TrEMBL record:
InterPro entries: Class_I_gatase-like, GATASE, GMP_synth_C, GMP_synth_GATase, GMP_synthase, GMPS_ATP_PPase_dom, NAD/GMP_synthase, Rossmann-like_a/b/a_fold. HAMAP family: GMP_synthase. It catalyses: XMP + L-glutamine + ATP + H2O = GMP + L-glutamate + AMP + diphosphate + 2 H(+). One of its GO terms (molecular function) is GMP synthase activity. This is GMP synthase [glutamine-hydrolyzing]. The gene is guaA. CDD domains: GATase1_GMP_Synthase, GMP_synthase_C. The active site is at C76, H164, E166. The keyword Repressor does not apply. It comes from Streptomyces armeniacus.
Length: 515
């Protein structure tokens, strides 16, 4: 059982546990200890969270959880809670660690780190630290700045680590989790998933019945897989709607119109809504405001499309009240979907939805991560060009212009983006990177010299990242000659851009998109 203290990664922990073939469920930290124990968990994992354990309003923990004989693993905030509740010390030591950190294993052969290297890369995201372990606990790892980075009390079956073993950038994380499950808690890897496709098709049929639905189709992986699932469930009761909001990349609308329909045979309605989105966005530079506006306009366009379909279908059309979206679990988490989870950004299809939404949502991928969605897509027989496509955010180039969005700026960014994509594809790097946002710093200017003349132009940022599920990411080490070609071409070919910079920040602390 994963107890969620408002973590960005709670669902990820549950998923890693399932990957270890042990069934897992998530419960909020507000659930009383008695109720948690009444569910008879074989093991408990305490998640991370945004609070500081010593703060007045911080979520606390009932010591009964440590005394019931159930093996417990604390991660990050959960580790700090465990340390404090059992008599150790947690404070703000000033030694913050975000992103890549080297962990030194202090005790070889410990339950959690058995068989893993003495020095290993872990992903950290914390500002507080445990400075003294509770009595009876052995310190099993440290970092350059944090002396107590992991501890265990094997007799009581209590374990804790300051880092996040659940994220893929912690190179031995899965092994640490499995050691807890198999060695610490003595569980066997015996659980398997039933087919997600069959389960979802049945659920969609039950939800939609004989009614009709529309699906927001972007050409991206998520909506393609969602559409294919719904099509399998309800066939021609589904119509897909592609919204051209004027924030798409070069050539994208044409590609969806031609290639996508050819590959999937869906019924597609293309709506040109550029004026409406750009008018609504005029003069707005706050990222959250942009996201909310885009989310609202999307729904308004879907409503209009629905009205048109109803008119076309006559009386039978009254039933079009379902909206299928390719919402994924990371969209939900990062929009503050869990209890006490910080809102990092409102994804247009979750937190950005208007309150007066008239549709009933159908979101068959809401609990899944990208790599799982790709597997479902493959199972449904979608072509590789769709299943392996890099993600592109629904708000499109609107959240890749730092500053207000207008047609002129969009044209600049579209050109720069097209060059970067062309060169990355030519270099055969598409499958190596997760995605490479190109960002226009429209409110920043710098001095350059071009053709012996002074220029005062805008910088463009390249943000190539590697990731497994977008929850964490690292910057991609692209070959210098590819970067150089992109830089030369952008500054030569795109008017008003006189500088190209590379974003070398991991996530955390950065996010993938700039807004
Ligand atoms: N231009 C668009 N027209 C219609 N619906 C859209 C559009 N852009 C996004 N959506 C809707 O919002 C959802 C979320 O967008 P998101 O970008 O996360 O997914 P995607 O485009 O399907 O896949 P990917 O993440 O691979 O780009 C989509 O699944 C789709 O339902
Ligand atoms: O459909 C989407 N609607 C959104 O509002 C949105 N914002 C970010 N993204 C994509 O999500 C992943 C994680 O992005 P961040 O690290 O920037 O949060 C990355 O793959 C981003 O491209 C979005 N996708
Ligand atoms: N990711 C976490 O759990 C962070 C725990 C705590 N908020 C800290 O900053 O140390
Ligand atoms: Mg997309």
């Amino acid at each position: 059982m994963v107890v969620d203290f408002g973590a960005q990664y709670a669902q990820l922990i549950a998923r890693r546990v399932r990957e270890a073939r042990v069934y897992s469920e998530i419960v909020p930290h507000t659930m009383p200890a008695a109720e948690i124990l009444a569910r008879n968990p074989k093991a408990i994992i305490l998640s991370g969270g945004p609070s500081s354990v010593y703060a007045d309003d911080a979520p606390s923990i009932d010591r009964a959880l440590f005394e019931a004989g159930v093996p417990v693993l604390g991660l990050c905030y959960g580790f700090q809670l465990m340390a404090q509740a059992l008599g150790g010390t947690v404070d703000n030591t000033g030694s913050r660690e975000y992103g890549r950190t080297d962990l030194s294993i202090a005790k070889r052969g410990s339950t959690l780190f058995e068989g893993t290297p003495g020095e290993q890369q872990v992903w950290m995201s914390h500002g507080d630290a445990c400075s003294a372990a509770p009595e009876g606990f052995t310190v099993t790892a440290s970092t350059a700045t944090v002396p107590v980075a992991a501890f265990e009390n094997d007799k009581r079956k209590l374990y804790g680590v300051q880092h996040h073993p659940e994220v893929m950038h912690s190179t031995h994380g899965q092994q640490v989790l499995e050691h807890f499950l198999y060695r610490g808690a003595g569980l066997a890897p015996s659980w398997t998933t039933t087919s997600i496709v069959d389960e979802q098709v049945a659920a969609i049929r039950e939800q939609v019945g004989s009614k009709r639905a529309i699906c927001g189709l972007s050409g991206g992986v998520d909506s393609a897989v969602a559409a294919a699932l719904v099509q399998k469930a309800i066939g021609t009761q589904l119509t897909c709607v592609y919204v051209d909001h004027g924030l798409m990349r070069k050539g994208e609308t044409e590609q969806v119109e031609k290639d996508f329909v050819a590959a999937t045979g869906v019924q597609l309605k293309v709506v040109d809504a550029a004026d409406r989105f750009l008018d609504a966005l005029a003069g707005v530079s706050d990222p959250e405001q942009k996201r909310k506006i885009i989310g609202r306009e999307f729904i308004r366009v879907f409503e209009q499309a629905q009205a048109e379909l109803v008119a076309e279908a006559g009386a039978a059309g009254e039933d079009v009240a379902f909206l299928v979206q390719g919402t994924l679990y990371p969209d939900v988490v990062e929009s503050g979907g869990g209890s006490g989870t910080a809102n990092i950004k409102s994804h247009h299809n979750v937190g950005g939805l208007p309150e007066d939404l008239e549709f009933e949502l159908v979101e068959p991928l809401r609990k899944l991560f990208k790599d799982e969605v790709r597997m479902v897509g493959q199972e449904l027989g979608l072509p590789d060009e769709i299943v392996q496509r890099q993600p592109f955010p629904g708000p499109g180039l609107g959240i890749r212009i730092v500053g207000a969005v207008d047609r002129e700026r969009l044209d600049l960014l579209r050109e720069a983006d097209a060059i970067a994509r062309e060169e990355l594809t030519a270099a055969g790097l598409d499958r190596d990177i997760w995605q490479c946002p190109v960002v226009l710093l429209a409110d920043v200017r710098s001095v350059g010299v071009q053709g012996d003349g002074r220029t005062y132009g805008h910088p463009v940022v390249l943000r190539p990242v590697s990731s497994e599920d977008a929850m964490t990411a690292d910057w991609s080490r692209l070959p210098y000659d590819v970067l150089s070609r992109i830089s030369t071409r952008i500054t030569n070919e795109v008017r008003d851009v006189n500088r190209v910079v590379l974003d070398i920040t991991s996530k955390p602390p950065g996010t993938i998109e700039w807004e």
